[in-house]
Specification:
There is one protein chain. The protein is globular, with a radius of gyration of 21 Å. The protein has a single domain, classed as Growth Hormone, Chain: A, CATH 1.20.1250. The chain contains 15 helices and no strands. Helix content is about 80%, strand content about 0%. By secondary structure, it is an all-alpha fold.
């Protein structure tokens, strides 16, 4: 416990880390507001009903475009000053959200311009998060990365959840229709501007990359994109811990996505639980609380077990939780399941982020984290598409529960076995301070 507090104090004492956290927290709070406004308009508008197929189509429309351009964005994170990228990206997404809100109020959430602006805004969000993760090792020493990732990713998720909760309050003020959702999105745009201004307080070279091509023209940089993507993929392949971690968390994201779409349908007005947007909000908040506990527990446990063993353990726990608390199909059982699955999601992400930061070189880190986000999105989209065939309109399916539970169990066993096989041929994991 004393070691944990000492390490946390050292991490928080870093001016660069505090600056990075200010950008992350403001940006993810705005993300929560914007995404809640979007979900409110698409899935919880009283004038519309949502089927599993429509939910899958919405997720595919929003996430697939970034999955295609994400690796290319990563090349620029490794070529241009990441601090400037954070400043400009936040200003750009503020402008995009203003345009989105205007058209949402006029045309509704299903019009092509509104859908197009939503997918661009979400793509920009993921781009910013990749830049924040790539820049973290520049402001925190390597032995403290587990703690730093625990704090940053957990508080970031909490900020997003608080933003979503704030959207619930704004929904009561602005209304549940498209105009109300548009007004909420405008509030998010203002906070993105604040995040951009906070980014300007960071040092120009503080976040890397170490060898920034600051005078390189856009067309010249674009010429190296395809080559850079291939180099980034090769860089991951050559680093066993990073490659295995990405494979494991990609599988997790698929099973988590199936559970998420199922929960979304369960809580719509036509769902089996009939709890609406407020009920889903409770599930999200409880999930974040589980993530906060993971942030407290994970640094301490990984000093004993190591990050790779801990990933295998939490995925095994997820398999048990899915059966024990998923099958009753009651609101209270789902709250318990959400708590533990939130713990699993956050614990595994902390470990995977740390493994990638420790085992990849800085000149490739932006590409690797963008590739990481791309795999995240593709896996979630795949889960959405699978849910269109597996889930009924009310979201209740024992088959999906079984698929998710077995999937987590197999992922845990496969990851543990592959890590054990390579244990003697790879350098030991760094010992956390």
């Amino acid at each position: 416990m004393t070691t944990d507090r000492h390490e946390l104090r050292e991490v928080v004492a870093s001016r660069g880390f505090r600056g990075l956290m200010a950008v992350r927290l403001s940006g993810q709070f705005a993300d929560g507001l914007f995404q809640a406004a979007l979900f409110s308009a698409v899935f919880f508008n009283p004038e519309r009903a949502t089927s599993a197929g429509e939910a899958a189509g919405a997720f595919a429309t929003l996430l697939l475009p970034y999955s295609l351009v994400g690796p290319f964005a990563g090349v620029f994170l490794d070529r241009w000053r990441r601090q400037r990228v954070l400043v400009n990206a936040n200003f750009v997404r503020a402008a995009i959200v203003v345009a989105f809100a205007t058209l949402l109020a006029l045309q509704g959430p299903t019009s092509p311009p509104v859908v197009g602006l939503a997918l661009v805004a979400i793509s920009a969000n993921r781009f910013v998060l990749a830049g924040l993760s790539a820049g973290l090792p520049h402001v925190v020493p390597a032995p403290q990365l587990v703690t730093a990732n625990s704090v940053s990713t957990t508080l970031g998720a909490a900020a997003a959840a608080i933003g979503g909760s704030a959207a619930l309050g704004l929904r009561a003020v602005f209304g549940s229709g498209d105009v109300g959702a548009a007004d909420t999105a405008l509030v998010a745009a203002g906070i993105y501007v604040a995040s951009a201004l906070l980014s300007r307080r960071l040092g120009r070279d503080e976040l890397g990359p170490t060898h920034a091509h600051v005078h390189e023209r856009l067309l010249v940089a674009m010429g190296g994109v395809a080559r850079g993507v291939l180099q980034g993929a090769q860089h991951v392949r050559e680093r066993g811990p990073a490659a295995r971690a990405l494979a494991a968390i990609t599988a997790h994201r698929f099973f988590y996505g199936l559970s998420f779409v199922g929960a979304l349908l369960l809580y719509t007005d036509q769902g089996a639980l009939h709890r609406g947007f407020a009920g889903l909000g409770q599930v999200v908040v409880v999930s974040v609380v589980g993530g906060v506990l993971a942030a407290i527990v994970t640094p301490r446990v990984t000093r004993r077990l190591g990050t790779q063993r801990w990933v295998a353990v939490v995925f095994a726990v997820a398999a048990v939780i899915e059966v024990a608390f998923g099958t009753p199909y009651t609101h209270w059982a789902f709250l318990v399941a959400a708590f533990f699955l939130g713990f699993v999601a956050q614990a595994s992400k902390i470990c995977v982020d740390t493994l990638i930061q420790e085992t990849t070189e800085d000149d490739f880190r932006g590409r690797v984290f963008s590739f990481y986000d791309t795999l995240f999105n593709l896996s979630f989209v795949s889960a959405g598409l699978a849910s269109a065939f597996l889930l009924p309109p009310n979201g209740k399916s024992y088959l999906v529960i079984a698929i998710v539970a077995v999937g987590y169990a197999v992922t845990s066993l496969a990851y543990a076995a592959s890590t054990a096989r390579r244990a003697g041929s790879e350098p030991p994991e760094p010992v956390m301070a």
